Amino acid sequence: MFDPDEWPDDDCVAGGADLEPGTLLEAYRRGAFPMPHDRELLWWSPMRRGVLVPDDIRVSRSLARSVRRFTMTLDESFEEVIDACADPSRPGAWIDSDIRAAYVRMHELGWAHSVETRAADGTLVGGLYGLSIGALFAGESMFHRATDASKAALVELARLVGAGGLIDTQWSTPHLASLGVTEWPRELYLERINDLVDAPPPAVWA
Fold first, then answer.
1. CA angle 124, 155, 137 (to 5 degrees)
2. Which of 27, 125, 126, 182 has a CA-to-CA distance to 7 between 20 and 30 Å?
3. What Pfam families would the database entry show (predicted)?
4. Angle of the 149-161 helix axis to the 61-69 helix axis, nearest 10
């Protein structure tokens, strides 16, 4: 199921299986990630993969000003972050109760992490979450309740992952491209993560 040699030339590469920790880790190490559709658990490995090389993060003057207004924290509010990302009123909401439970479990096991953006009074106003596997951070979702709050979380993530690491954004969007996200062909992404997933993780999550 997670053998890239058997995958079709399509973003969706498989269906079924489960969301147990071992299944998730094997999938990410092979370049696939889960995302349900119409109540079916599907596994994806985009033909054009969105990636951010940390040194390529683009921080405009206005974003730099915004970043200075926020306080960043790590893993202090993982469940609050994933719940904000799962808000069913958001366009394209896809995080269901099974996905939530699986990633909360991965957080408890030390694999899933959150970056939180806070206002001056400590209120959570943005953030992101994903899996850290070696030097690869596989981003899952992000949200914002204040201008530039999700962008600030990505800037902080790039700083944490650092040179030599890679941030997987799954797909690219114009919003992400403006921050330095580019697209790699699937073959290149799979080749590059071979070494990344076995490399030492960022010190903050070691």
1. 95
2. 182
3. Leu_Phe_trans
4. 90
pLDDT digits (tens, 9 = 90+) for 7-66: 999 999 999 999 999 999 999 999 999 999 888 999 999 999 999 999 999 999 999 999
Cβ–Cβ under 8 Å, residues 152 and 126? yes
Q: Note the pLDDT tens digit of each residue in 155-190.
A: 999 999 999 999 999 999 999 999 999 999 999 999
**Beta strands per DSSP E along 71-121:** 71-74, 112-118
Domain that holds residue 61: 48-184+192-205
CA dist 58 → 67, 178, 180 (Å): 13, 7, 5
- Note whether 40 and 52 are same-domain residues: no
Claim to verify: residue 32 and residue 91 sit in the same structural domain: no
**Which stretch of DSSP H or E encloses residue 21?**
helix 21-30
Pairwise CA distance, residues 32 & 84, whole Å: 24
Looking at the 3D structure of the chain, how many domains does it have?
A: 2
Cα separation, 77 vs 160, in Å, equals 18
Instruction: Give the DSSP H or E segment for 65.
Output: helix 61-69
